[in-house]
Amino acid sequence: MSQLRTVQVLGGGSAGSSAHVGSLAAGLVARGVQVTVCAPSAVDRAYDFTATGARFLPVPRRSDPAAVAALRAACTGADVVHAHGLHAAARTALALSGRAVPLVMTWHTRRYAEGARRQILHLLERRAARAAAVVLAPSSDLVDRARERGARDARLAPVTVPAPRPARPDDDAKVRAELGAVDRPLLIAGGSLVPHHGFGTLLDAAGLWRRLDPVPLLVIAGEGRDRDALERRIRDEELSVTLIGRRAGVGELLAAADLALLPSRWEGRSLLAQEALRSGVPLVATAVGGVPELVGGAAELVPYGNAEALACAAVRLLGDPGARARLAEAGRVQAAGWPTEDDTIAHVLSVYDELAQPLATGRAR
Predict the structure, then answer these.
(1) How many CB atoms lie within 10 A of CB 218?
(2) Is the whole model's pTM more than 0.85, yes or no?
(3) DSSP category for residue 1
(4) Are 248 and 176 in contact (CB under 8 A)?
(5) Are residues 66 and 109 in the same domain?
(6) 242: part of which helix (H) or strand (E)?
(7) In this structure, what CATH number is given to the domain that contains residue 349?
(8) What is d(CA 71, CA 62) in angstroms, rounded to the nearest whole number?
């Protein structure tokens, strides 16, 4: 049988989806698959997909004729095309129009919109779900949502990212010194600075725990349209919070932290949660989406949008080293039971083989 050829398509490239594509590309190439990654150039600069052995083609995150034509050309000769995210799937479906090339979509995250945009989002979800031969989703609620939107075949699938690099003994102290948290607790959060990630609630919680002595430092890694508004609140309310912008990974920050915080309205298999539990960093997270499935009893779960519950959980853990140690150990045990990168790659490859086989049989005839 000839070498399997696959194209991986990314849109804006969130940290979780980009890390997943990097892991997937490396694993597929190692198994003899020819991989092309299509994404905006900025995403490749951050994640260096060519280092995995894949071919990289810059394709902007647009749906204009030129961008769609570039994507169509990139997919020429592919046996399977795999789009990551709603926008990437919708654009890829347009690019593949008229071609008998199976499309796989991984629905990484749930999006939110209000007013007229909510209807547009609904239509986008339907278009993406119906265009895909198979929809893969990291949590049961997203599988259900894909089916509700008309997916022909929606499956629960592991989305595992590389384990964090082991920290050197002096790394934690260096990171804490750089952030200004040598003599006070360090709390880490991360993600796109958009409303549904709950950073407004997190700032509310920071206002509640500033009565502690010393006051914890909250560091948030990420960029997004809410940055200016968040910075104004931090300044006006004199909160001990630092926004440090986008990071390729938050592993080294988490390794130095006393607590990790995940205040989102929805998460599937959160990258931050995975890295926190693997690193043995106690996690306080909202009980939403796929988070309870992911963490089990190895994290402190609170309701979404409840700043008081979030602050109380953080303060209680900061004041109880024994509880933090127990939660850290529970996190490592929980993480040890997750699907591995090899499991994820084998699962995806089995889907590709399943879809590509009928095409190969048809060509042989």
Answers:
(1) 27
(2) no
(3) -
(4) no
(5) yes
(6) strand 241-243
(7) 3.40.50.2000
(8) 10
Task: Identify whether 165 is part of a domain.
Answer: no
Q: How far apart (Å, rounded) are the C-alpha atoms in residues 99 and 310? A: 50
Q: At a CB cut-off of 8 Å and minimum separation 6, what does 213 contact?
A: none
Residue with tokens 């948030």: 220
Interatomic CA distance for residues 20 and 264, integer angstroms: 20
* Domain with 28 in it: 5-160+340-364
Tens of pLDDT along the chain (365 residues) come to: 578 999 999 987 666 788 889 999 999 999 999 999 999 998 888 889 999 999 999 998 888 888 899 999 999 999 999 999 999 999 999 999 999 999 999 998 888 878 888 899 999 999 999 999 999 999 899 999 999 999 999 999 988 766 666 666 678 889 899 998 999 999 999 988 999 999 999 999 999 999 999 999 999 999 999 999 999 999 999 999 999 998 766 788 898 999 999 999 999 888 899 999 999 999 999 999 999 999 999 999 999 999 999 999 999 999 999 999 999 999 999 999 999 999 999 999 999 999 987 655 554 44
Q: Report if residue 76 sits inside a domain.
A: yes
* Token output for 221: 């890694």
- Are 77 and 198 members of one domain? no
R_g of the chain, CA atoms, integer Å: 21
d(CA 289, CA 273): 13
Q: Provide the CB-side half-sphere exposure for 177 (13 A, CA).
A: 5
Q: What's 63's DSSP letter?
A: -
Please give the structure tokens belonging to residue 142.
């997203």
